[in-house]
Amino acid sequence: MKPIKALAFAIIFAFISVFGVKAQTPETIWLAANTSAFKTGETVIVTVNAVSATPIQGFTFQIRYDPACLQPVNATSPIIGMNGLQLPQTAGLVDASFASTTPQAANGVIAEVRFITLGGCQTNLTLESAALAIRNESGFAAPLASVTVGEKNVALLIDKEKGESQNLPLSGTPLPLGPIDLVTTTSTLPAGTVAVLVVIGVLMLIGIFIFVKQLRGSGDHKDHK
Question: pTM of the entire structure?
């Protein structure tokens, strides 16, 4: 799992209660879609699925897409209590993380990701990476061991014919997958909420400093072996 993912979970779990769980097997994650044929302007819904014998407290995934064919809209989780962490997005790659304050069962759909089709093309969605997260015995966020990735690709055929826009029900609170506009977001929040966000921001900076220091220490330790 990439450092930014580990840091994302560390930040989330720093503000929730401690629950220790031990990994079991098997655990699997895979990508799926109910249909593969669309018209331009329609909504594509793909699901990230997981089966885990161990209750999880979060998960993360990246889905590769063609920005000339698809525009990501949002991601949701049908698991009650799973909240999304908004991360900077890169064109061509959906990057999403979710976490819960309590352990949750994972047995089926753990997230839905929505895209809007932009024009006629034949393309694929690829599960670039995925991980399930728990709290280890030390109380820190950790990826669940022995997780296998099943189906990684979903093939889509998009017709250039204009389709009808769709207002499909959401499975949970939407996590926007567009650019993060911090100025607009904070200007609409109450003063008390902004103050809390500032405090969290300071704590995040401290957490980043500690996290980077740990990474460097780990790297130095490996170099001396």
Answer: 0.71
